[in-house]
Amino acid sequence: MHRQAYIFLLLTTLMWGGNTIAGKLAVDHVSPMLMATIRWNIAFAVLYCVGRHKLAADWERVRPRLLYLSAMGFFGFAAFNIALYCALLFTSAVNASIEQAGIPMVIFGLNFLIFRQRLFLGQMIGFVLTIAGVVLTATHGDLRNLLLLDLNAGDALVLVAVMVYAGYTVALRFRPAIHWLSFMIVLSASASITSIPFALGEYAAGSAIWPDATGWGCILYTAAFPSLLSQVFFIRGVEAIGANRAGLFINLVPIFGTLLSILILGETLHLYHVVAIVLALGGIWLAELSGRRVQT
């Protein structure tokens, strides 16, 4: 049972890491906002066909929380991916993958600032180490760029995406008690609708690129795997070994993203990337280990 859960969770994080690769491969083959819009429209259509009966059963609990769920769909699904795909026009997939390791640490920070969730020494040290790794990546190994505020536009956009997704994750504590399919349907519906104005703005600016064969491949990958199949695998993994243990696997996303960037895109791994990965993942491990020791 546990072996199957581990396989599910490894495949989940591999698919999530592949989202960054698909976004990079899509450059010049489909514009980022159009890609996000088509992706979520496809995902919504599939989810609705599969789970509409669950949504109907949950509707009385969904309706009073519709504004909250719509905001969650916009920020967690649409805005995050729009920012990420736009970022990949300007930065490497390796950078984008490593910088996403900052999400757990931003979540720690937001929980402390908003909910006064207690932080322990190990968590604070881990926070500093992880953020140091992210900053090292964003400045391309030269911290003087931070002092000069000379950040690549793509790396800055990834940091925006990190903040957005961390906020989405923290807000999940207010999720209504509904079936996961109902939750996914409403959020994907919101993402598909709220991403349309961005795609129209992209078209009006003359920067829209209708997908060619490669573009469609990237869209279909992101719709089928990061949007749909990975969610099923993650839920199955959580059911088998629990949310705390399953959550540790999310730390593999930047690792898979980095490896796939090198293997598929042929991107270069610099020494500062290696140092950043060690700092970021070491910090996450230290923070989570500290939290678990306190709980036991």
UniProtKB/TrEMBL annotation:
| Compartment annotation | Membrane
List the transmembrane segments: 32-50, 66-90, 96-114, 121-140, 146-168, 180-201, 213-234, 246-265, 271-289
Pfam families, per database record: EamA (PF00892)
> Keyword Lipoprotein on this protein?
no
User: Which organism does this record belong to?
Assistant: Aquibium oceanicum
Please tell me whether the keyword Transmembrane helix is annotated for this protein. yes
**GO CC entries:** membrane
Give the UniProt family note: Belongs to the EamA transporter family.
Q: What is this protein called?
A: EamA family transporter
Record-annotated EamA domain positions: 5-138, 153-286
- Specify the protein's topology with respect to the membrane: Multi-pass membrane protein
Keyword terms: Membrane, Transmembrane, Transmembrane helix
Cross-referenced InterPro entries, in alphabetical order? AA-Vitamin_Transporters, EamA_dom, EmrE-like
Main location (coarse class): membrane
Q: Which domain of life is it from?
A: Bacteria
Organism lineage reads as: Bacteria, Pseudomonadati, Pseudomonadota, Alphaproteobacteria, Hyphomicrobiales
